[in-house]
Amino acid sequence: MRGYTVARIWGIPIRINTSLLVFLPILAYLIGSGQQIELYAGLLAGFSGVGFDLATLRAGTTPWTIGVVAAVGLFVSVLLHELGHSWAAMRYGIEIESITLWILGGLASLKTLPKEWNRELWIAVAGPAVSVLLGVVCYVGMVLTPASLAVPRFLLGYLAITNVVLTVFNLLPAFPMDGGRVFRALLARTRPYGTATRLAARVGVVFAFLFGIVGVFTFQIILVLLAWFIYSAATTESRTVLLDELLDGISVGDIMTRDPPTVSGDTTVEAFGRQLLSDRQPVHLVVDDDGAPLGVVTLESFKRVEGATAPRSRCRRSHRSCRASTPTRTRSTPSHSSAPAARPARSSRTTDGSSACSRRATTRAPSRSAAGSVRRRCKPAAA
Description:
The chain is α+β, with helices and mostly antiparallel strands. It has three domains: about 1-170, no CATH class; about 175-245; about 250-375, CBS domain Like (Alpha-Beta Complex), CATH 3.90.1280. Helices cover about 55% and strands about 15% of the residues. A five-stranded mixed β-sheet has the order 1-2-3-4-9. A four-stranded mixed β-sheet has the order 5-6-7-8. α5 packs antiparallel against α6 (about 150-170), α5 (about 115-145) runs antiparallel to α7 (about 180-185) and α9 crosses α15 (about 350-360). It is elongated, with a radius of gyration of 28 Å. Mean pLDDT is about 75; it is low at about 320-335 and about 340-383. It is a multi-pass membrane protein.
């Protein structure tokens, strides 16, 4: 998820998404102008016995000050929650690419997600543990703050409640939220990782529909957005794990085309067009007079050249160099409590390199065998 980098903590870029920049003033307005001040003051008084002077809290511009500080404090709490996930992940040697704050909370983008159930469990509970700790600290701070400091006292109480609510909500087994990842980790103790993921994803989809229905009937747009996020993230991760299972143990060499169609660099585009019609291959390897690869020429490049130049232009002018068209490592960034994509690509297994092969069916990585023949590493995804 894109955003503006505003800071770095432990080397992790902290980003703010545009949606948060729009939502934060709205949240501050809702806290300061509605009945939330009275609501939270009543909850705190009933739960802790700490009283608040409502006249002081509602005097002048004080409600707006409370609204701004409370809204910012809430998302600072979310940031600390995500840092809890990040700290636990880094303890296991997992790189954190970024933490992004957006309208629905925060996303810690982990470069990889562990398949070991115990590691995923500890990473998942680390965030809620931080929220619980923040709630306790804020509650103690509220109790110790003198009544004369009504605004700081109220803000500490507000953050105590919101952090507890954040913890409880995140621990719902709505995969891929924290509770859903805890649920998958517990399932993975006695089941294959893929089976555990599919079961957790189904539960997540059920919660998504429940949130969506409640959001529609109560006119809560945030719940509707959350339902959409949970549904899309759960189904995406389930499909990704299924793809990993299907490709597990298969090397790129097992699926490559050993005798790719070739064309001389001196072949005219007109002649190449006839060859395209005859062999029906979207990608051809361009070779020199000695058979050494120069690059690849694709159906797309043929169409561009056909419309822009004379039919007797040479394929040598139209090909892309081997270096430019060789698939490099395909980076994918699974997000904790967001939709993980496939794991980062490695060169030896199709489980991790499938993105590079399927992302663009016309991308090839030519190489020479010991006998000097040219081979393609990936064939079209549709083949």
